[in-house]
C-alpha cells in the first residue's frame, strides 16, 4: 500500500504529489498532480491504495512510493596547483576534499 506522506512517483517513474485525499467520491477520493513533462503537472484521481484504475490491473499511472531525496551542498575549491576539488556537505557535515579557496557552492538533490 502506498504511503501518501512519503515521496511519490507513478509506476512509470513520473514525479507525483497528492493534493487531496478526502474527495467526495467512493472509488477515487485521492487527487494527485503528476509531472507529465518538466514544469507541467496534470491532475489525476486515484483509489485509496494509489491505483489509477480500480479494477485490479496495473497502470503506469499508479502511485508508488519513490526514493526519498536529500539535498547536498557541494562547494568547489581551487587548490594551490590551480585544480578544482569538490567538498560535499550532508546534514551540515563536510565530507570530501579540502581545497584552499572556495569558488562556488551549489545545492544538488540526490536520491537516498
Could you characterize the architecture of this molecule?
The chain has strands spanning 8-10, 15-20, 30-37, 40-46, 63-65, 69-78, 84-90, 93-96, 101-111. The chain is mainly beta. The chain is built from no helices and nine strands. It is 0% helix and 53% strand. The chain has two domains: 8-65, no CATH class; 69-111, no CATH class. Strand 3 and strand 4 form a beta hairpin. The strands form two sheets. The chain has a five-stranded antiparallel β-sheet, with no helix packed on it. The radius of gyration is 20 Å and the shape is rod-shaped.
Structural class: mainly beta
Average pLDDT taken over every residue: 84
Which consecutive residue ranges, at least 5 long each, have pLDDT under 50?
Answer: none
Order of helices and strands: EEEEEEEEE
Key traits:
112 residues; mainly beta; 2 domains; four-stranded antiparallel β-sheet; 53% strand; rod-shaped
Amino acid at each position: 500500500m502506498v504511503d501518501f506522506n512519503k515521496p511519490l512517483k507513478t509506476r512509470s517513474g513520473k514525479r507525483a504529489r497528492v493534493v487531496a485525499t478526502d474527495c467526495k467520491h467512493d472509488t477515487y477520493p485521492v487527487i494527485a498532480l503528476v509531472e507529465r513533462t518538466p514544469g507541467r503537472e496534470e491532475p489525476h484521481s486515484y483509489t485509496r491504495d494509489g491505483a489509477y484504475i480500480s479494477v485490479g490491473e496495473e497502470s503506469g499511472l499508479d502511485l508508488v512510493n519513490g526514493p526519498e531525496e536529500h539535498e547536498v551542498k557541494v562547494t568547489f575549491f581551487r587548490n594551490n596547483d590551480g585544480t578544482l576539488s569538490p567538498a560535499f556537505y550532508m546534514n551540515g557535515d563536510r565530507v570530501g576534499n579540502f581545497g584552499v579557496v572556495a569558488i562556488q557552492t551549489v545545492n544538488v538533490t540526490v536520491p537516498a
